[in-house]
Amino acid sequence: MCYQRLVWLFIGTFLYSFSSIIAAAPSSQLDAVKEAAQAHVESLITPPEYGKLEVQAGNLDSRLQLSHCPSPLVTDVPGRQSLNKSVTVMVSCKEDGWQVYVPVQIKLLTPVVVARRPLDRGMTIAADDLIVQLVDARFQRGQTYTDGSTIVGSRIKRVVGIGEPISGNDICMVCRNDEVIITASGSGLNIIAKGTALSDGALGEQIKVRNRKSNRIVDGTITAVGQVIVKF
User: Fold this and answer.
1) Which of 37, 58, 91, 98 is the most exposed place for a label (fewest CB within 10 A)?
2) What is the CATH number for 164?
3) So what's the pLDDT on residue 16?
4) What residues make up the domain containing 223?
5) What's residue 107's pLDDT?
6) What's the CA gap between 157 and 170, in Å, rounded?
7) What is the rounded CA–CA span in Å between residue 121 and residue 149?
8) Is there a domain that residue 5 lies in?
């Protein structure tokens, strides 16, 4: 009797363990499907040089019954999808004849100057007002900056919330009626003069400037806070 009980106990333990493995199989296979989808998207996108690529597969229906594929899963991005915010990856097992479509979210994070604290309109930006953070490219609008020292001394044109990227539209590195330094260059000569800005502008933008000495109006390109260059 004791021997029979041991035999039945062994059989029962084996069947319970086997049933547990079978029950866990679908969940394990679903994880493998998600991982395959993520790996496929990561292989298609080059991470930013100084940033980070984040890829996250969405949740799949836990009721899906998928067999364990005897060979590596096949992945593909069907159709003409753009690899921007999200993409759908087809994961399939040719031997067992099943396929699953997996939604994958994509984030390209790049270093950008953001506001360390709320910045109100009319404020002059100080170094302590800024910090560099990794920001999703989807939330970057227009010209952004990677070096805070570039825009220190600029004035805020519109309210910027804490943690928000600072764009060229949010600031003026040269503001209307500001005194500016004009550097006129050409033919190996550099002439420096003072002038008055006739409009607002950010780095690299062209604005009208009045030379205070000659009263002549010229087009200058903003090179730094309070500075423009004129070609002649």
Assistant:
1) 58
2) 3.90.1210.10
3) 39
4) 178-230
5) 93
6) 5
7) 19
8) no
